[in-house]
Amino acid sequence: xxxxxxKIEVNEGKLPWVVGIGTILFGILLGILVIxxxxxxxxxxxxxxxxxxxxxxxxxxxxxGGRNRRxxxxxxxxSYRNWFGRxxxxxxxxxxxxxxxxxxxxxxxxxxxxxxxxxKLCKLEYSMKDCVxxxxxxxxxxxxxxxxxxxxxxxxxxIRTTAVSAGQISAVVNEAYDKARELVSEWEKDNRxxxxxxxxxxxxxxxEMTSKEKGLWEQEGxxxxxxxxxxxxxxxxxxxxxxxxxxxxxxxxNHAVSFYxxxxxxxxxxxIEEQLKIRCFGNAMEELADMLDIWAHxxxxxxxxxxxxxxxxxxxxxx
Length: 319
Fold this sequence. Notes:
Blueprint: E1 7-11, H1 15-37, H2 42-68, E2 70-74, E3 77-81, E4 87-91, E5 95-102, E6 109-115, E7 120-124, H3 131-140, E8 144-147, H4 153-160, E9 162-163, H5 169-190, E10 197-206, E11 234-244, E12 247-250, E13 258-268, E14 276-280, H6 284-298, E15 305-307
Parallel strand pairs: 5-8
Antiparallel strand pairs: 1-2, 2-3, 3-4, 5-6, 6-7, 9-14, 10-11, 11-12, 11-13, 12-15, 13-14
């Protein structure tokens, strides 16, 4: 059996090259136009030339940074190269904690690693290619991650996601479903004016069998052959479909008014010497509450009708 090796590369991608080359070409073009058409004083010409030189220099630095700046991972060995090509090599054991934030409008976008003496090992941004995968690598290998409270929900969801064993899945999912039914019951009481109820249940999928072209109710379910041998892509979610007078509530495109909240999934692990990990999403109920609030807002301001649909997978009360 071929040993499983973790390999990750975080780099700047194509953006610094595109911006850098564009800045250089624009600076050169402006320089040609200034030389051909400028009639100002010599002092003014020198000032313009200095600005153009700085512009072209900034473009060159962007290209250098795009070429040099990267972080590579091979199992527990990590190599970081900064903008100017200076390299630092360290291992997972050298990392004390990670400080990170990803806030709206790019006001904060960083991932910093610190050693046990409080010294910074490296700094990355989520705009860099595969930076999110590197964060998952840190989480899977039990590195402490400190995240700002105002960070993007995706980032906070990753940090709150925990690993569970196959034997814990039933308890975790059933507990989440009980909480989900409480949220749904509260929504129905608060929105009696709709005279509608949610048909809810637990659904299980294999992600490679799902299709983006199909509606939620049209997706094919999946039942694992053994509860102890769960394949990559196995997913357990809590779903709900709004009903009124025994029929389903549909929008103008005949799509069912519904919600979908993943609770547990099996995905690739970035932990050393582990291939798959069972992940439990810690913010599943927050996402469900947000979706219910969205429907409470949109139902009164859009046109809906009722009809019958056939749900192409089982909705269970327990697993």
